[in-house]
Design brief:
There is one protein chain. The chain is α+β, with helices and mostly antiparallel strands and 203 residues long. The chain has a single domain, classed as Inorganic Pyrophosphatase (Alpha-Beta Complex). The protein has three helices and ten strands, in the order E-E-E-E-H-E-E-E-E-E-H-E-H. The chain has a five-stranded mixed beta barrel with strand order 1-4-6-9-7. Strand 2 and strand 3 form a beta hairpin. The longest helix has 19 residues. The model has no long low-confidence stretch (mean pLDDT 92).
Length: 203
Amino acid sequence: MPFPPPFYRWRPHPWHGLETGPNPPQLVHAYIEITPFDLMKYEVDKITGYMRVDRPQRTSSQPPALYGFIPRTYCAAHVAKLAATATVGDGDPLDICVLSERPINRSEVILTARVVGGLDVNDHGEADDKIIAVLQNDNVWGKAQDIGDLPDILIERLRHYFGTYKMIPGEESKLLVERVYGRDHAMQVVEAAMADYFEEYGG
């Protein structure tokens, strides 16, 4: 039987089969892998597109925001050029944290988010940026346009979480949150990740 467009007869791959967003680099789609209620680290399997258990979180801290990635992005040379100290990209889709006033307690959902800033993260010498965004039309955070529109405590929690979530007692951490940046730089990072994706995988 014929299917009306844009009906998908089969499930599209969440990284390669979904659109980057309705108006990137500012308004993007986010595919959510982890919620603030999760104590397991989940990641989309790059081959199948299904969710894979990566590891249980070692520390007691919980993600302070929804956490996932922006479809059809890739962190390679263009993203690394914007980093403070990293020399290469991490070879993954661009990570995104989305703030929502109302709890969203399930993963594997797609949402639309407005980019307001980000974290410059160096993980073992690789650029591993975390874009910070707000849920579109959120009743509390929806009007935020830049990182300065968010309470300092929220940014502090994000920075602390990503600065510590891979720490192992007795070992020196090789992950460093270099800086917090605003909307303009964040949109440059999104554009760079879109360019890296195009060079790696095509249109």
